Amino acid sequence: MYSSKKDQSLLFPHMEELPKFVTKRIQRRTSFDNMLKGYRKSLEVVSCWHTLETVLEYFEKGFERITLVVGDSITDHYKTDLAGRVDVCEKLYDYYKSGRLKIHVTADKQIHSKFFIVENDTHILAINGSLNFTKNATKATHQVNYQWALEFEKGRNYDELNTLIDDYEWH
Fold first, then answer.
1. Pairing of strands 42-47, 114-119
2. 24 FRET partner, CA 20 to 30 A, in 90, 114, 116, 169?
3. Is the separation of the CB atoms in 147 and 129 below 8 Å?
4. CA-to-CA distance for 63 and 30, rounded, in angstroms?
5. Of 125, 127, 123, whose CA–CA distance to 155 is shortest?
6. What is this structure's pTM?
């Protein structure tokens, strides 16, 4: 018989280690930023499309480190996008040189995933959904996106987090 006065944690030991589940409809200019509120330590992005201006914008919002994982098909877009834009190139180079910006290009596969991992001092938030890392997507100016996330408390062991990190590294 169930008793609300007795400790039930022995019956369900794994229950207290479940991550928090979060969903977000990205339909207003502040929706994605609200999802990232309080997370400024690092931002890891797997996205088939992103803009380098968005990367700079998130540095300006206070992120300490940003890592991008992209397919090699976007490198031609970089060349076109950055042509003649010395100021953007210099800022990106400064972040790269300081170790705060990393870009990994996968030559053996085309990236179509949209996956983010953000971190602060106490939590890790793994986000998946339809949002590319572009101004139009993050600001919801011309599109609506849906994201779901799992929030993990640092210092605890989660099988789900280990799986998500493996999936991130697989890209």
1. antiparallel
2. 169
3. yes
4. 17
5. 123
6. 0.82
